[in-house]
Amino acid sequence: MSAKKLTHHVHGGPLAHESSDFDLQFAFWRQSGYMVATPNVRGATGNGKTYCNIAIGDVGGAHIEDVKSVLKYVLEMPETDPERVYLAGHSRGAYTVLAALSLPEHQDYFNAKVTASCAIAGLADFAIDLQSTEGVRRQGVKKSLRIMQFGDDQNPLEDEELNQKISPVFHLNNIQTPLKIVHGTEDTNVSIENAYLLNNLIESNPTLQQLIEMKIIEGEDHYFDSPDGKREVIWNTLAFFERHCKNVD
After folding, report:
1. Is 66 helix (H, G, I), strand (E, B) or coil?
2. pLDDT for 24 beyond 80
3. 185 within some domain
4. What is the reported pTM?
């Protein structure tokens, strides 16, 4: 049996998990010849309160280490082609992708092992995102979401050092592998300002221009709910991955 391409997909959240339910994107990837790894990283729901709460206050840490552990495991499988390994994520999963490729403590491993990656509706700067959603989310909901990730004692809006440590926008120059960023203009969960901020940095850096592609989809929300939006996300991701195949069947 010939080795297959692998898409390692990271779920969103913080309160979310992967399940055995049908997923259109995963089915599409499998139909296109990819194996799909979909781990429930620390902080996922569906595995008990302890597992859900264990990652609070460790943004940019444990959940990325779990992605690394799964990637190491699947790379040892003879079915996996190590030259065609793709990392993808949506929402909190997209933040995980961006952080894995850029944060100093993670970027060496992921830039070496990942062929290409895709971050869909991802958060790049926690402080900017919390500020830009001020008029969109109810205060109680926004505070709850922050506490779910940071606990009571951490707030990237008030702690500049923390925000710079965990926000990928401050480490974008560490990215060394091809990356596709996709975001909808009507996203009220993760502000489109994250994508605009990244795009400004990319346009001012010739090296990043060679590595990173930005796709802004007009009129789409956080979940790309329209049929056209879903198709555009899936096809953009697949086309980007296929273009960066190092081996062709």
Report:
1. helix
2. yes
3. yes
4. 0.93
